[in-house]
Automatic annotation (TrEMBL):
Full protein name: Histidine--tRNA ligase
Gene this protein is translated from: hisS
PANTHER family referenced in this protein's UniProt entry, alphabetically: HISTIDINE--TRNA LIGASE, MITOCHONDRIAL-RELATED (PTHR43707:SF1), HISTIDYL-TRNA SYNTHETASE (PTHR43707)
Domain Aminoacyl-transfer RNA synthetases class-II family profile: residue ranges: 24-334
Lineage of the organism: Bacteria, Pseudomonadati, Pseudomonadota, Betaproteobacteria, Burkholderiales
InterPro entries, per database record: aa-tRNA-synth_II, aa-tRNA-synth_II/BPL/LPL, Anticodon-bd, Anticodon-bd_dom_sf, His-tRNA-ligase, HisRS-like_core, HisRS/HisZ
Transmembrane stretches, start-end: none
Compartment(s) of residence: Cytoplasm
GO cellular component, as recorded: cytoplasm
CDD domains per UniProt: HisRS-like_core
GO biological process, one term: histidyl-tRNA aminoacylation
Record-listed L-histidine binding positions: E83, A84, T85, R113, Q127, E131, R258, Y262, Y263
Annotated Pfam families: HGTP_anticodon, tRNA-synt_His
Principal place of residence: cytoplasm
Length: 429
């Protein structure tokens, strides 16, 4: 029989690695609560037109990377979500969530793009995102950037820089687009195949090329910043002023355009040089026209998304260790006949918040194993204590508590005092 394995670029996340994911997610949830962002969850599968309309028909994602298919039952065109913002906006519009004012939302979950798998870039990847919908001012852009910056501090991440740009408003981009096309037409001999394909459909994306042979030419291209009007510049200055007041360093990158067509005004990325070509760990910006594009009443919005795999990879690079997901106690049970009573006491401890792992045979008819083998497994489990439910202890109505990770002598405790021990254990965490 053929061995079945995971699809290339779609990875299993197994213990103990999954504990690092849970640690990161817990950090995010606590931080989002402090900023008053509320969790929302949208479907993994959405109508294909949502992304074509929202992201832009000539973006790489829509043209080359989406997992799209036809529903065999009704012929509907469906797509595994390649990003979450369009789905969040669809849900906000569908459920009239802005009827009573702006909303601050966040999400976590898998996204899907058919790309060449490489370090930090997978076909199923995970994002954490934050969206502020219904807020027009520069303060909303800045708040989201401050939120991401606070997360890096919470995680202990270093060597992460913030790059900013402004894409202005549609009429300003149209004027810049005309000038940019005219400039690129004069340098067509230097354009690679991808740039020639984009020349008239999406010339702004050419500025974000990674082709070394095109860098000098692109550096000389007209800059969108020079086409911005007074209101767009004032918005950008407002963002920068708030960041400066909060001690957040930034630098202008006039070639920063992001990969979706829905952005306007502020765009930004947090970048590291430690992950090679996949150095962007967070990116986002303002998208004031997307809600209307998807069918809602016009409303401003801004958001970002974090690449979870890249953040975890950067944490490894910097030697930032996530806490081990180990039990507080490991129950050593020499006599299987005592299991019913032992498990009753373990349930009591678990109800009091103690994390307990019980020794158990791994094969039918194997037996509980010797005390020596059970202690070996207790030590390997990473638990702080072993709880020994031996025959002598049962005779005295007691349990032996043996420290495995810290100083102290083993001691016998009455079974009816386990609640007191649990309280002491909780306070020492």
């Amino acid at each position: 029989m053929q061995k079945l394995v995971a699809i290339k670029g779609m990875n299993d996340i197994l213990p103990p690695e999954s504990a690092r994911w849970e640690w990161l997610e817990d950090k995010v949830r606590a931080l989002m609560a402090r900023y008053a962002y509320r969790n929302m969850r949208t479907p993994i599968v959405e109508p294909t037109p949502l992304f074509v309309r929202g992201l832009g028909e000539v973006t790489d994602i829509v043209e080359k990377e989406m997992y799209s298919f036809e529903d065999r039952l009704n012929g509907e065109q469906l797509t595994l979500r390649p990003e979450a913002t369009a789905g969040v906006v669809r849900a906000v519009v569908e459920h009239s969530m802005l009827y009573d004012g702006g909303k601050r939302l966040y999400y976590m979950g898998p996204m899907f793009r058919h790309e060449r798998p490489q370090r930090g870039r997978y076909r199923q990847f995970h994002q954490i995102g934050a969206e502020a919908l219904g807020f027009p001012g520069a303060h909303a852009d800045a708040e989201l950037i401050l939120l991401a910056h606070a997360l890096w501090q919470e995680l202990g991440l270093q060597d992460v820089r913030l790059e900013l740009n402004s894409l202005g408003q549609p009429e300003e981009r149209r004027a810049h687009r005309a000038a940019l096309i005219q400039y690129l037409e004069q340098h067509q001999d230097q354009l690679d195949e991808d740039a020639r394909r984009r020349l008239y459909s999406n010339p702004l994306r050419i500025l974000d090329t990674k082709n070394p042979a095109m860098q000098a030419m692109v550096e000389g291209a007209p800059r969108l910043m020079d086409f911005l009007g007074e209101a767009s510049l004032a918005h950008f200055e407002g963002v920068k002023a708030i960041l400066e007041a909060n001690g957040v360093a930034w630098r202008i990158n006039p070639r920063l355009v992001r990969g979706m067509d829905y952005y306007n005004l502020t765009v930004f990325e947090f970048i590291t040089d430690r992950l090679g070509s996949q150095g962007t760990i967070c990116g986002g910006g303002r998208y004031d026209y997307l809600i209307e594009q998807i069918g809602g009443k016009p409303a401003p919005a801004v958001g970002w998304a974090i690449g979870v795999e890249r953040v975890l990879e950067l944490l490894k690079e910097q030697g930032v260790a996530a806490p081990e997901a180990a039990a507080d106690a490991y129950a050593v049970v020499p006599d299987p006949a005592q299991l019913p009573r032992v498990m009753a006491h373990l349930q009591q401890l678990r109800a009091l918040g103690v994390m307990v792992q019980m020794h158990a045979p791994t094969a039918a008819g194997e037996g509980m194993g010797s005390m020596k083998s059970q202690f070996k497994k207790a030590d390997a489990s990473g638990a702080r204590f072993a709880l020994v439910f031996g025959a002598d202890e049962w005779a005295r109505g007691a349990v032996t508590v043996k420290p495995l990770r810290e100083a102290g002598e083993q001691a016998e405790r009455p079974l009816d005092s386990l609640a007191d021990w649990a309280a002491t254990l909780q306070s020492s965490r």
